[in-house]
Amino acid sequence: MPKSKRNVKVSLTKTKKRPRDKKDALIEEIRGCCEKFSRLYLLSVENERNTFLQVVRQKFRPGRLVCAKNKVMQVALGTTPAQECQDGVHQIAERIAGQCALLFTDQAPADVQSFLAEHRPIDFARAGCKATDTVVLPRGQDALAKLPHSIESHLRHLGMPTQLLEGKIHLLGDYTVCKAGQELTSDSAQILKLLELKQAQFSMSVEARWHKGGEFKDCQDLED
């Protein structure tokens, strides 16, 4: 008779941590940062990329940059005066919306704003992003000259009117990859990447700031 799986002993050291445990740990970490650091900045994020966020983290160490679900960050900070973990910090929680992050640090507003204004690297745009420029490829072989001939069939799969002639990729007619202001499709995003054309600029902007003791500012002007 086969052994019942219900009788198998599982060492607790091998059990996976439950998502709820991780969420509770993050909430406690955020509350701990409110206690540890004197300033909290609510940052809006455009074209988020992990590699670019890592640069921000390194810049503001030993500060802490938190990118988590908005609801988790709101619960951690508290959305009402009765729930807030520090005086006045619920005003930050009320403004958490869209793609955003929390920056805990002791650095002054002018220093934070100065760095974020300069740290705006460019990357390849993804599907769903709005094109910043109109890209039209002319008929012929010049526009695709840098691409290997082996990729020609893939280009046709992406919707481009191409043909392989004498080992070179020919575009059979003018082809519009994207138009400025319109959302990129998956195909157009792939084509831009193949052509090494970057149209996504990473940026972070301060939307609001809080200082320990209850001071709050809905920010446009970051001067102390």
TrEMBL record:
Domain of life: Eukaryota
Pfam family membership, one: Ribosomal_L10
GO terms under biological process: nuclear-transcribed mRNA catabolic process; ribosomal large subunit assembly; rRNA processing
Gene3D superfamilies the UniProt entry points to: 3.30.70.1730, 3.90.105.20
Transmembrane segments: none
Official protein name in the record: Ribosome assembly factor mrt4
High-level lineage: Eukaryota, Sar, Alveolata, Dinophyceae, Peridiniales
Region (Disordered) location: 1-21
